[in-house]
Amino acid sequence: MPFVADTGGVGGVHLSNMELKDWNTSIETNLTAPMLMSQACLPMLKRTPSRTQGGCILHMSSTRAFMSEPNNEPYSATKAALCGLAQSMAVSLAPDGIRCNAILPGWINVTNECKKADEEGQSWEEGLSKEDHAWHLTGRVGKADDVLRAVEYLVESDFATGTEIVVDGGVTRKMVYPEG
């Protein structure tokens, strides 16, 4: 899987060398920010006499909530916590008619979705190997549209709340044995 180089991303330093500022940056980016954004939107999402249903909050977690690689403690912990936050918010906000769910994407290739890729005419498949695709039960790496469809389902389904949808091409269901 590719390394994500943002402050709240996958990968980092070994736990023995991690500084508290690294941990806190991940907590603030991946957990505190979604909570604050949700809190700020509550007045707009509440059910009202003129609106019979309230809104829907979606937290973008990650399959790293369930499985990890070395040196992912801050990222994995915050993504698991987002699942707990979604569940708790679903219970707390139900009286206001607000639903809350989490989406857990796996490997979603978006390298073609940037200005440089647009200028170079880069396709979605560029840079991906047959092995990258074969690793997924669906036979391909994920696309942004795969996550979009999960978002649309959860927004439109007024009976879904407090749940998680994994969008990973079946990777978290596949047993992987060490090569030997």
How would you describe the overall organization of this protein?
With 180 residues, this protein is mostly helical. The protein has a domain at 15-46 and 55-108 and 143-171: NAD(P)-binding Rossmann-like Domain (Rossmann fold). Helix content is 39%, strand content 9%. It has five helices and three strands, in the order H-E-H-E-H-H-H-E. A three-stranded parallel sheet has the order 1-2-3, sandwiched between helices. Helix 1 (20-45) packs parallel to helix 2 (73-93). Mean pLDDT is 89; it is low at 1-8.
At the fourth CATH level, what is the homologous superfamily of the domain at 15-46 and 55-108 and 143-171?
A: NAD(P)-binding Rossmann-like Domain
CATH fold-type name of the domain at 15-46 and 55-108 and 143-171: Rossmann fold
Low-confidence stretches: 1-8
* Helix-strand makeup class: mainly alpha
CATH class type of the domain at 15-46 and 55-108 and 143-171:
Alpha Beta
Order of helices and strands: HEHEHHHE
Helix and strand topology:
Layout: H1 20-45, E1 56-60, H2 73-93, E2 99-105, H3 115-120, H4 130-134, H5 144-156, E3 164-167
Parallel strand pairs: 1-2, 2-3
Summarize the structure.
This protein is mostly helical and 180 residues long. Helices cover 39% and strands 9% of the residues. The protein has a domain at 15-46 and 55-108 and 143-171: NAD(P)-binding Rossmann-like Domain (Rossmann fold), CATH 3.40.50.720.
